[in-house]
Amino acid sequence: MPKKESEKESITVSFIRAFIITPLIFLIILASIFAYSGVWPPLVVIESESMQHSDTTSYIGTIDTGDIVVVKGIDSFDEVVTYVEGIASGHYTYGEAGDVIIYHHSGMSKPIIHRAIVNLVYNYTGGGFDIPSLANLPADMWEVPGENVWWNLKKSVVLNDVGYANTTVQIDLETMLFYMSQRGEMHGGLITLGDHNWDVDENGNVIGKYDQKWIRSVQEPIREEWLIGKARGELPWFGLLKLWANGAVPANTPHNSEINLFVTLGLIFIIPMILDVGHSSLKRRGIEPFKQTKRIFSRHRDGRRREK
Questions:
Q1: Backbone φ and ψ of 243, nearest 5°
Q2: How far apart are alpha carbons 133 and 119 in whole angstroms?
Q3: CA 86 → CA 15, 118, 194, distances in Å?
Q4: Residues 88-116: pLDDT tens digits?
Q5: Secondary structure of 26-76 in the HEC alphabet?
Q6: Would residue 304 count as lying in a domain?
Q7: Biggest distance spanned by C-alpha atoms of the chain
Q8: In terms of C-beta density within 10 A (0-12 exposed, 13-18 middle, 19 or more buried), how is residue 270 classed?
Q9: Do 108 and 133 belong together in one domain?
């Protein structure tokens, strides 16, 4: 066989191997992730900018549009560290204090992945909310209008300098209590907020738009039974493939995410081909790239056989 035809055949075989090996590796990784996660699907594609830390740029270590996040299944609030608790304990995930949770209930169109901000404990005796975690928060980071206590609160509580944007989150407890009383289901739960869900008011104050006030299908604290899991780990950019396939890529998706995805995909397919072609070329020249390594393994195997 002529040399050029042999090289062409080698490149073709390498190309086919790359397309077989890459999906196989992906399936093995997916199975491992599911074993860790305990829920299906074990991955969530981020479809909006609500958790970004920038309008224009994505970062590894934060949750951006088009990222894929691993979901670790949870059943209880005991498995969640809120933002308020994280400030006191030093527990940070995805660039801010506290855990990011995934939750859903029957009245929602799809699950929401936002940060757990604070846990409200319903006070069945007094009819308000207790927030014991506030006791460990620096005094200048929270306030209760008209009083300075964290128990049996019925009006509002304000959290200052929350997140990367230093937002003010004024939690309207009175409206939530009224909403639940109308439904006859009084309970506590988590207040949640997307890291990027804030706005600037007419006075120049940065106001945090927490879910329980700004999302119509979530007008009460998150219940334990709504919990799906908490975010653990990140595969940046690859969720853009799904969003493109569905025609659902937001207009404000960070441009660097798209560039990084194309570069990474190119490397994933090209590197195995380069290694395979290089290995074949060396063998045709009579050079065995891993000859010494094979000898070591061969001696080890022979030694074990003699021991038996």
A1: -65, -40
A2: 8
A3: 48, 10, 16
A4: 999 999 999 999 999 999 989 999 999 99
A5: HHHHHHHHHHHHCCCCCEEECCCCCCCCCCCCCCECECCCCCEEEEEECCC
A6: no
A7: 90
A8: exposed
A9: yes
Burial class of residue 61, CB neighbours in 10 A (0-12, 13-18, 19+): exposed
Residue type, 236: P
Token pair for 9: 């055949």
Looking at the fold, whether 124 and 213 belong to one and the same domain comes out as: yes
**DSSP conformational letter for 77:** G
Please report whether residue 148 resides in a domain: yes
Separation of alpha carbons 147 and 156, rounded Å: 11
**DSSP class of residue 144?**
B
What whole-number distance in Å separates Cα of residue 79 and Cα of residue 119? 12
Domain hosting residue 123, numbered range: 38-253
**Residue 137, both tokens:** 């928060």
141 shares a domain with 223: yes
Question: From the CA atom positions of the chain, what is the Rg in Å?
Answer: 26
- In whole angstroms, what is the distance from residue 71 CA to residue 99 CA? 12
Start-to-end Cα distance in the chain = 46
Q: Of 91, 93, 156, nearest to 120 (Cα)?
A: 156
The angle subtended at Cα 10 by Cα 7 and Cα 14, nearest 5°, is 140
What would the DSSP string read from start to end of 160-205? Answer: EEETTTTEEEEEEHHHHHHHHHHHT----EEEEE-TT-EEE-TTS-
> 222 by DSSP, 3-state: which?
strand
DSSP 152: S
| Residues in the chain, overall count | 308
User: Among all chains, which residue has been given the structure tokens 């460990």?
Assistant: 136
Question: Whole-structure pTM over 0.85, yes or no?
Answer: no
Tens-place pLDDT, residues 195-242: 999 999 999 999 999 999 999 999 999 999 999 999 998 999 999 999
